[in-house]
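User: hey, got a sec? need Ribosomal protein S7 folded
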Amino acid sequence: MLSVLRTATWSLRQSTRFSSTIAEANATDPLANSGLQAVIASQQTTPVASSSKSKLPPMLNIPPAEDPLLHYLTSSIMKHGRRAKAARITSRTLLHLHSFTRGEPLPLLREAILAASPAVKCLTHRHGAKNVHKPVALGEKQRTRFAVQWILEASDSKPGKTLEERLAREVIAVLEGNSKALAKKMELHRLAMVNRGNVPRT
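Assistant: Yep! Here you go:
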């Protein structure tokens, strides 16, 4: 029993000496204090940095490269198999749209193509000595094809040195309602309305 008490007393003295040695080292070592202060300073500055990042302006939402509408527009612009060049024209067109309107370019492009898309087309066939026009309803892909084709054709008359600038100006003209593509659509609808009697009744 006496040996157990002596062992416990000796271990208590050793732990007391060890703790006092650590305290003296912390008090006399400037590196330890500076390191502790650096950790505290980093913890205090972390919320400030996160709050400053949250106040940054929102980035422009770049549309995905595999968007079906952009893929079709690139295919319509492409000539002689130069798809990389056509893709650059498409991306620069979106950039011009953003610089002209300060808005999201892809929704503007979708709205312009939807506005220029016809609902019907007229098939012409010869009946006796005269040509007869027969209105036919169009699907979504057919409507998009007519709209993209008309917008590309009408962009040739717009001011600008490059195709992407002229195409962006034509898209804005469609949205404003003063485009040749819209005139072609109205003419086609008028022709279909005049010849609506040629549609067979079911």
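Quick note: Confidence is low (pLDDT under 50) at residues 1-5, 28-54. Let me know if you need anything else on Ribosomal protein S7.
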